[in-house]
């Protein structure tokens, strides 16, 4: 059996609802409106984790949907990346430095 740091329980209501105990909320860093994922393992145990939020960009989602739809409807317009195109892109980014771990400035947020 796994090491148990804390054991707690809650009760199901008539409508199969329960309150997540405060110790579990703290351990998972849960807040109001957060989502919880349940993984039922083969041995019957259930693993409960916090669903990490991903911020959808509605404009990007619509653009990607547009591209996917256009590629399906007009596959004849798709073309391979040529050496010339690759060289052009390479020349545009060759002196660009990027630190993916750097925090965003307030204007980038």
Automatic annotation (TrEMBL):
A GO BP annotation: regulation of cell growth
Xref: InterPro entries: PrlF_antitoxin, SpoVT-AbrB_dom, SpoVT-AbrB_sf
Domain of life: Bacteria
Boundaries of every SpoVT-AbrB domain copy: 10-56
SUPFAM superfamilies given in the database record: AbrB/MazE/MraZ-like
SMART domains membership: SpoVT_AbrB
Single GO term (MF): toxin sequestering activity
Record-given protein name: Antitoxin PrlF
Organism: Marinomonas polaris DSM 16579
């Amino acid at each position: 059996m796994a090491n148990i740091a804390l054991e707690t329980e809650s009760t199901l209501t008539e409508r199969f609802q329960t309150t997540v105990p405060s110790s579990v909320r703290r351990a998972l860093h849960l807040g109001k409106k957060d989502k919880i994922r349940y993984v039922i393992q083969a041995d019957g145990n259930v693993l409960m984790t916090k669903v990490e939020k991903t911020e959808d960009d509605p404009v990007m989602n619509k653009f990607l949907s547009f591209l996917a739809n256009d590629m399906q409807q007009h596959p004849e317009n798709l073309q391979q990346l040529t050496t010339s195109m690759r060289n052009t892109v390479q020349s545009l980014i060759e002196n660009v430095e990027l630190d993916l771990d750097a925090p965003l400035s307030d204007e980038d947020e």
